[in-house]
Specification:
2 copies of one chain form a homodimer. The termini of chain A are far apart. Chain A is globular. Chain A is α+β, with helices and mostly antiparallel strands and about 150 residues long. Chain A is built from 4 helices and 5 strands; from the N terminus they run βββαββααα. In chain A, strand 4 and strand 5 form a beta hairpin. Chain A is about 35% helix and about 20% strand. In chain A, helix 1 packs across helix 4 and helix 2 crosses helix 3. Chain A has a 5-stranded antiparallel β-sheet with strand order 1-2-3-5-4, covered by helices on one side. The first copy, chain A, has one domain: HIT-like (HIT family, subunit A, 2-Layer Sandwich), CATH 3.30.428. Chains A and B meet through helix 1, strand 4 and helix 2 of A and helix 1, strand 4 and helix 2 of B. Strand 4 of chain A pairs antiparallel with strand 4 of chain B.
Chain lengths: ~150, ~150
């Protein structure tokens, strides 16, 4: 089976938040966590230590830049940065902003997302933000532009 | 309340795996994930982008070094690297090696750890490795020494 994260061109362009030199930021499905992004490495690698040093450093700086943009745009109480890859072993970060009004704010998101697997109304709740997806993408892009985050074809 | 991760001297010395220049590696409680470490920043900061650039780069390199040592020592199918801080907002990484024989290997660990909160036998299972804790620490230190990971008082 081809790696689903090696084929980002198949993604809807609307979901692409930012093209970094070493990674691509996608707006994730769970926008109850308003600003939730998935940051995908352009290089196919399974673990961070498989990347050449300078590529890894740049990739991690891009991750940090994106977390700052999410924080600036949506003022969460905390960012959760998770590199798992248990199902898709191609380096990608789940960047979840956690709100103070989330009743599960002290726990990892995966408990709620597991409920969403079995419960359609919970799924809908966790996919839905007070803002439309296009507005979330626009706010993130504005912050990234203000930060002058480098784009490959800027 | 004082920050519990600003007071690492109170930790049992046996649990300290490695002293890096910018972080301290502790052996975590859940050794069903054999080699599970918590890597604590020496600087008190809530988000990665609050660290000075050169400190953050070094902290993230130390995290990568530790994941490589865990992988070399215990050959997991995947590393999970998680910076959450929902309960303790002082930068620290949860580094979980995931085994192929874990029935929950496709999911984040937090579902199993949530069960352990309510179920004493599940808690015991997830705290227990086939190896004693002292042996796990010894194997990680051997790998880190081989990698010549820098220590502040090397």
């Amino acid at each position: 089976m081809p790696c689903p994260l090696c084929n980002l061109d198949a993604r809807p362009a609307d979901d692409i938040v930012w093209q970094f030199p070493h990674s691509v930021a996608l707006l994730g499905p769970w926008q109850y966590y308003t600003g939730y992004c998935i940051l995908v490495s352009r290089t196919h690698a399974v673990e961070l230590f498989h990347l050449p040093d300078e590529v890894r450093t740049a990739f991690l700086e891009e991750m940090t830049t994106l977390t700052r943009a999410i924080a600036d745009a949506f003022s969460p109480r905390k960012l959760n940065c998770e590199l798992l890859g248990n199902q898709v072993p191609h380096l990608h970060w789940h960047l979840f902003p956690r709100g103070a009004d989330d009743p599960d704010t002290l726990k990892a998101v995966w408990l709620a997302l597991d409920r969403a697997d079995r419960d359609e109304s919970e799924k809908k709740r966790l996919q839905t933000s007070a803002l439309p997806r296009s507005e979330i993408v626009a706010r993130l892009r504005t912050k990234l532009k203000e930060m002058k985050a480098s784009e490959p074809e800027a």
